[in-house]
Amino acid sequence: MAEDTRQYTDFYAQAGKLICERSCEVMNAPRAEALQTFSTLGFPTKKVERYKYTDVAEDFAPNYGIALMPLLVTGLPYCHRISEAPIDVTPYYNRLTDRQDAVVALNTMLSVDALVIYVPRNTKVEHPIQISNVLKGEQDTMVNRRILIILEQCAEADIVITDKAVDHSHFLTNQVIEVFAGDGSHLNLYEVEETHLLCTRYSSVFVQQGRDSHVRHTSFTLFNGHTRNRLDVSLQGEGSEVILNGCVIADKTQHVDNNTLIDHQVSNCQSNELYKYVLDDSAVGAFAGRILVREGAQKTVSNETNANLCATPSARMYTQPMLEIYADDVKCSHGSTVGQISDAALFYMRQRGIPEKEARLLLKSAFITEVIETIPFEALRDRLHYLVDKRLRGELSKCEGCKLCK
Amino acid sequence: MLQINNLHARINGKEILKGINLTVRDGEVHAIMGLNGAGKSTLSNVIVGHPAYEVTEGEIIFNGKDLLKMSPEERAHEGIFLSFQQPVEIPGVSMVNFMRAALNAKRQYKGEEPLSAGDFLKLMREKRQIVELDSRLTSRSVNEGFSGGEKKRNEIFQMAMLEPTFSILDETDSGLDVDALRIVAEGFNKLRTPQTSALVITHYQRLLDYLKPDIIHVLIGGMIVKTAGPELALEIENRGFDWIKEEVGL
Amino acid sequence: MDNKNKFVREVAEKKYEYGFTTDVQTEVIDKGLSEDVVRLISEKKGEPDWLLEFRLNAFRYWQTLEAPTWGHLKMPEIDYQDISYYANPTAGKSGNSGNTKEIDPELMKTFDKLGIPLEERLALSGTAVDAVMDSVSVKTTFREKLKEKGIIFCSISEAVKEHPELVREYLGSVVPYKDNFFAALNSAVFSDGSFVYIPTGVRCPMELSTYFRINARGTGQFERTLIVCDDDAYVSYLEGCTAPMRDENQLHAAIVEIVVKENAEVKYSTVQNWYPGDAEGKGGVLNLVTKRGHLRGRNSRLSWTQVETGSAITWKYPSCVLSGEGAQAEFYSVAVTNNYQQADTGTKMIHIGKNTKSTIISKGISAGKSQNAYRGLVKVAKTADNARNYSSCDSLLLGSKCGAHTFPYMDVHNDTAVVEHEATTSKISEDQLFYCNQRGINTEEAVSLIVNGYAKEVINKLPMEFAVEAQKLLGVSLEGSVG
């Protein structure tokens, strides 16, 4: 057994019983298999293609206290603790996850509770559901977060998930989200991370889409330490559409790695992906986006764009847009750029009297604007414009405006 | 207002300006004419402080201040405005945010309070009339998707907003049809006062018919080789530049 | 649609024109690989000790390696002990490749049949040829004429004898034997290949060309090409390849090394048409090649142009290391795959020097049940201020059973760099076909027209004589004209 996984397997050997007691049957069922996977595979090394740009073992090496707290779900409509879910979630829980990913297995092994967002058929959720994850505590802590989102046929919902950190401790979040978007459903899922330099985030999101479903996932990494987001979308119903957008602003020694897979399994589906990075100081950005069009997935339309601004000599960007296509009647394209702020635009603005620093800021903000403007939800759009602006001005060192932090 | 003494400048190691002397007084409009590559655009870029150009010798004094020591934005705050030959498109930056940033930076420089959002928008509406600029355009990103004529009108609109004391029109007439040219020129004339001056760079008499410059300079090979009254422009229109070259022995 | 399906079927059934074998007396050493075999090869070639040492070091290193696993290729298991590492078709004669008269007439016929004239009077205008069959260089034409200018163009075996100082200085300097599994293997057992040296200030007056052919059964071909272009010099080099039809896979693991010095320019063009295997995917050449150029000097230039239509498996990434300030590199590629062919090809552009510039244009065309992947790396090192790269990778799919893939990697470590990548995948549109049909062009012809138009940007980069050949090849592949 690899040394780097030992502290987790040791912990499980001691606390496994307690975890099972605090949890429920549906979550306990896959634990043994998860333990097996985790201890056999060990943390993925950089030789594993999808973990090429992030040193997982290093991120999981510190000795964190592992949180085993049940969720606090109070009065949010459609949101339930897994043990209180209105339907049997056995056919859903841990069904979409990649069984060969040790990071996911670790979550399955250690999660005590899960949040279930269940929207019954033909139900339209009027107000966006916001899930605030607040990392608090004086001790260095690891959190295993698990969310299950089930939209039945023709259900509609907007969900905003925010990550914040209140205390200046080291936090490691290992999140797994499974999304079932039923036939004809509409889901907008937004994730906004505003933590701090001591925070490490691993997120694995698995989405399965039914016929004519629409899913939009938008991810904003505004402030963080080390972040690695995995996002897999499986288009299994004809006529489904997925939009994946993301934006990263990173400076100092921040590290952000977004790794996405869009799997076109059937014909007549569309996917659209746009990720933008602004990197400053010694930040490291990585983007790998794989579009897979399976045999028979005719009439696929797919578009992928990754654009990056590197503002300093020590910032690094790795980008890897991939097309893998086994059907002929498709329209797929991808584009990727790494560049700088346009000198011509910068000079034009300075000639109009805008100070260089301000001009750079406006141009960076404009670069990000393209992603924000894709969001159909106005209040969030405004909020993000505000946060991005603050972030670029260097005023967003801790989370802002949330009731819990005050 | 503006005094240029023995100005030498180069770009990528190549000397373009080889000793320019030029004095523009309050209220005057000067025109600079010359063939392509004579250094006209270099001169305007050097005045506004384009970082690609290196001044190797000489000085530019603007209202008693040493211009060459200032950043491009300080020069703008001091009242210098360049209407670009090819205004750049800036996707994602709205005209409103752009103009507000520019105007408030200048006000801050002058020690004034920033304009309130209401007053600012009112000012935008007002100034738009001067060049008949459609409100559609001011709600878009800077110059993005503007036609050639719209871009030039947008330049004059920005001039109206920023109220510079010294404006440079760098081939503002290029790519404009007759109507657009008239609108732009008339817009410029409305902004003229006895305290404002301008430098107009052009190949053609057409624009000068509207702007009525006081003094014409001919720039050849990086030097001003001839200076005269407005009649010189007409003569160049009829006879070209060769006779001037002969006259000065080039 | 019926027409089109018919066309696709025909494409899938097209035959390989160059699949004949040559009946010459060939000396083939026993199968298997060991230190003794390496020594034997070296001995047969009468090599100096330093080269034997080089081979042995490579061989010992190779033994420590495991065969690579393949990201996207289905690679048959290669039994390295079941291959003969040396085959000499000239063995029946004196073996001296300097004089036409001494070449076996059967060999001459072979190259004639391939359209490669070895007699100088028949040669394509302005092309000097080095022909390599199996392991041995058969003939190099126009040597004397080139010699007048100080240009050295000969087989690498001869170069080892006649210009040992040059070979010793540059061999392995661009692709060290530790580079990868196949580079190590090649360094241990390489048989022959071409050597080119263009001295300072010389523009090579004609196209230099090497023609490779695998003939003998059960042999591998491990050629090695070394091109050194000194300051202010220029050369355009062409490489062509074919192999007979054989049921088993034939291994071809070559190395090409190019050194480009200050203000020098090298154009390297390849038309690769190794036997691709039959319609069921049986047999064919495994083309596992390491090609790399080192742009050492300021303002040096290198362009790779390749038209890849053959081989069961193609695994090659002609690469450029741009260390000289202002160096410029280009990669133009057309890869056509059909039946069960697999191609995994692309380039690496490693920007190290300031103001370096690279361009990548890749066109993949997949038909039948083939898999065609572009894999490329653009790396901008910290030192490469103002580096520029533009990449464009397009794929065209003919038929619904094939695959087209694009795997670009971009690593940027410098904030003044601008790196751009674009890729599209599409099929020939019904509209385009209909438009052609309406103008009286049948579907088959229309597809060929469109594909040729699609590949034109790359074909145009080839020297004229080669461009014609490449167009013909694309024609053969895609017109479906069964001969």
Features:
heterotrimer; B: 250 residues; alpha/beta; Rossmann fold; six-stranded mixed beta sheet; four-stranded antiparallel beta sheet; 10 helices; C: 483 residues; ten-stranded mixed beta sheet; six-stranded parallel barrel; 24% helix; disordered N terminus; disordered C terminus
Description:
The complex is a heterotrimer of chains A (406), B (250) and C (483). Chain A is built from eight helices and 18 strands. The longest helix of chain A has 20 residues, at 3-22. Chain A has helices at residues 3-22, 25-28, 31-41, 56-60, 102-110, 343-351, 356-372, 378-392, and strands at residues 65-66, 79-81, 115-119, 129-135, 141-151, 156-165, 171-181, 186-194, 199-209, 214-223, 226-235, 241-250, 255-264, 270-279, 284-293, 300-310, 316-325, 330-339. The radius of gyration of chain A is 21 Å and the shape is globular. Helix content of chain B is 40%, strand content 28%. In chain B, 43% of the residues are buried. In chain B, the strands form three sheets. A six-stranded mixed beta sheet of chain B has the order 6-9-10-3-11-12, with helices on both faces. A four-stranded antiparallel beta sheet of chain B has the order 2-1-4-5. Chain B is globular and about 60 Å long. Chain B has a single domain (2-248), classed as P-loop containing nucleotide triphosphate hydrolases (Rossmann fold), CATH 3.40.50. Chain B has 250 residues and is of the alpha/beta class. Chain B has helices at 40-48, 72-77, 95-109, 117-130, 135-138, 148-162, 178-191, 205-211, 231-239, 242-248, and strands at residues 2-11, 14-24, 29-33, 53-62, 65-66, 80-83, 90-94, 141-142, 166-170, 197-201, 215-220, 223-228. With 483 residues, chain C is α/β, with parallel strands linked by helices. Chain C has one domain (2-479). Chain C is 24% helix and 33% strand. Chain C is built from eleven helices and 24 strands. In chain C, a hairpin with a 2-residue loop joins strand 3 and strand 4 (136-140). In chain C, helix 3 (49-63) runs antiparallel to helix 8 (181-189) and helix 9 (430-438) crosses helix 10 (443-459). Chain C starts with a helix and ends with a helix. Mean pLDDT of chain C is 78; it is low at 1-13, 92-101, 120-125 and 479-483. The chains are: A alpha/beta (406), B alpha/beta (250), C alpha/beta (483). Chains in contact: A-B, A-C. At the A-B interface, helix 6 and helix 7 of A face helix 2, strand 7, helix 3 and strand 8 of B. Strand 17 (316-325) of chain A pairs antiparallel with strand 23 of chain C, so a sheet runs across the interface.
